[in-house]
Amino acid sequence: MQDLTAEILTVIKKRPTQSHKGTYGRVVTIGGNKQYGGAILMSTSAAVHAGAGLVTCVTAPENLSALHTFVPEAMFVSSHDYSTLVDVIQSATVIVIGPGLGTEDFAADILQIVLNRVTDDQYLIIDGSAITMLADVKDQLHIMAPHGQLIFTPHEMEWQRLSGIKIADQTEENNRQKQEEYQATVVLKKHHTKIYAPQTPTMRLPIGGPYMATGGMGDTLTGIIAAFMAQFAHDDPQSALAAAVYTHSAIADELSEDAYVVLPTDIIERLQKFMKEHSK
Ligand SMILES: NC(=O)C1=CN([C@@H]2O[C@H](COP(=O)(O)OP(=O)(O)OC[C@H]3O[C@@H](n4cnc5c(N)ncnc54)[C@H](O)[C@@H]3O)[C@@H](O)[C@H]2O)[C@@H](O)CC1
Ligand SMILES: Nc1ncnc2c1ncn2[C@@H]1O[C@H](COP(=O)(O)OP(=O)(O)O)[C@@H](O)[C@H]1O
Ligand SMILES: [Mg+2]
């Protein structure tokens, strides 16, 4: 087991002058039913603020006005418009699916469309409701794994649902066994989050704290991971992922110096400054 340190932030690179939005990746965020619109708005906004070149949000039409108000940089596709969904998936560098998606029938359809279309050169970040839905079909996960590079971001309860390992039994050895079975990367979120990536020693996040325990905090992390994978994954995807996870909690730690709780939207607001300070 390896503890992550601030050294990982060297992943964040100064931008070359000769570049444009296409250079920094296309992120597609999929989620947000009528009940959980905020989740996908935070994911989308985090991806924009962490530097993804182009971000498209696939969400319930009820969330359109809020999306354009909260993050006008993002484009919108209705979660009922399967034909446009297929188009945006095809051109994506990174896809996030799950924040606030819910588990209704239409959500399961969308998840199936994405799993069928994702390709080996794309990263697919699977979070929240998408993990909960996959728990019902976990026996098929090894079939899905070759398509796209899967990054699961469960909290302990979601990991229990998906892996079948009870929270009390979520030891490094048990978790590693399941991660290998899924041929995916697993970011197991909790106090001292752990990252289980293929052919890499387990990484442990030694920072972050209870001031982060607010709904939307994990939704925000998905957007940061997406933007980091879109921009920095070329040479070393594991380090890009670890840097995203580290950045999320490092900003929370800084803000907690004079705040009782740190809100997901506070972290989003701070991303640009933090990344500028740490860019090499
Ligand atoms: N503003 C919004 O729209 C929000 C939407 N959300 C969405 O709501 C859906 C359901 O997700 P939830 O996570 O709320 O519900 P879940 O039912 O999946 O998990 C929550 C339960 O897990 C337990 N738990 C045990 N260990 C935990 C750990 N280490 N971290 C977090 N919880 C732990 C909690 O106490 C709670 O009872 C997801 O799609 C999610 O993205 C949530 O993110 C909350 C905010
Ligand atoms: N006590 C804590 N210490 C460190 N990190 C925490 C703590 N509580 C929550 N977090 C972090 O907040 C995030 C919560 O994710 P998640 O439960 O998926 O939130 P949501 O689904 O509401 O967005 C994770 O990154 C987790 O590691
Ligand atoms: Mg979550």
TrEMBL record:
Coiled coil: none annotated. It is an enzyme of class 4 (lyase). The keyword Cytoplasm does not apply. Its cofactor is Mg(2+). InterPro entries: Carbohydrate_kinase_pred_CS, CARKD, Ribokinase-like. Its EC number is 4.2.1.136. The keyword ATP-binding applies. (6S)-NADPHX binds at A39, G100, H155, D219. It catalyses: (6S)-NADHX + ADP = AMP + phosphate + NADH + H(+); (6S)-NADPHX + ADP = AMP + phosphate + NADPH + H(+). Catalyzes the dehydration of the S-form of NAD(P)HX at the expense of ADP, which is converted to AMP. Together with NAD(P)HX epimerase, which catalyzes the epimerization of the S- and R-forms, the enzyme allows the repair of both epimers of NAD(P)HX, a damaged form of NAD(P)H that is a result of enzymatic or heat-dependent hydration. Homotetramer. This is ADP-dependent (S)-NAD(P)H-hydrate dehydratase. It comes from Ligilactobacillus pabuli. The lineage of its organism: Bacteria, Bacillati, Bacillota, Bacilli, Lactobacillales. The gene is nnrD.
